Amino acid sequence: MTQAYHIPVLAEESILGLNLQPNHDVIDATYGGGGHSRLILDNLGAGRLFAFDQDEDAAGNAIEDDRLFFIRHNFRYAKNFLRHYNVKQVDGVFADLGVSSHDFDVPERGFSFRFDGNLDMRMNQDASIDASQIVNDYSEDKLRTMFRMYGEIKNAGRLVSEIIKYRNTKAIKTTTQLKEIASACAPKAIENKYLAQVFQALRIEVNEEMEVLREFLEASLDLLKPGGRLVILTYHSLEDRICKNFMRAGNFEGKVDKDFYGNITSPFKLINRKVIIAGQDELKANTRSRSAKLRIAEKI
């Protein structure tokens, strides 16, 4: 059996959050290295696990288990694929929205500024647009909006000006080129954080992560049985805000509706009102858990 190539974050808390019972049908929307999937299977009895991942590397790491149905597609299409298995609703939906640590550590994938590699960042290698095309072809306004919205970069105007100046003389093809440009704009005290924000913004844009997340959450609401659990790990404020609002209010704006008596009406009951984060022991053992936030909700 293939070993998972990453340590699952908040593993025990995630599994407890799913409230797994024998014969449950569960979705792992982000299979990755299979760490969480393995733990779900360990607690699933005779149930079934439908695991989604568009990354070819993840497909090569699929666990050999008759209860696992690996689907090499983006989880935004979960409803369509489950129809193939005559599954209309499931008992649990889990998603770890972080990029696999394996992908970060493969230079040619272009996710990290720590290595020199092609400026790619596609989770699905069959996708037509990569990060290089975005930095070379997007308009100044479009780039500025992207870095402000997805990277929360305060001096996005300066960064984009430097990108435009550079690409007017030479195409930006590698992570090292982008790092060089961004480093010149970064406040020295937080250079690594700044670079991470630049690369994050590009990755989100390349993979349409915010659009995918919204589609996935709406689909999860339809797919979950009453009493079914939605368990999501987020790693940055943008996606966490979307998940928090949706679980609390059933919409992405967080607009709360109340009944005649002033009670909040929502399709979910929050299992943890306070977000769950990693403890000191896990932080020491797994640095990837540093920015992780776990939210759990139950469909009413």
What is the gist of this entry?
By secondary structure, the chain is α/β, with parallel strands linked by helices. It has 13 helices and nine strands.
Describe this structure in words.
- The structure is a single chain.
- The protein has 300 residues and is of the alpha/beta class.
- The chain has 2 domains: 183 residues, Rossmann fold; 96 residues, Putative methyltransferase TM0872, insert domain (DNA polymerase, domain 1), CATH 1.10.150.
- It contains 13 helices and 9 strands.
- It has a 7-stranded mixed beta sheet, with helices on both faces. The chain has a two-stranded antiparallel sheet with strand order 6-7.
- The two termini are 38 Å apart.
* Whole-number total of structural domains: 2
- CATH topology assignment of the largest domain: Rossmann fold
What does the oligomeric state look like here?
single chain
Tell me the CATH superfamily of the largest domain: Vaccinia Virus protein VP39
Low-confidence segments: none
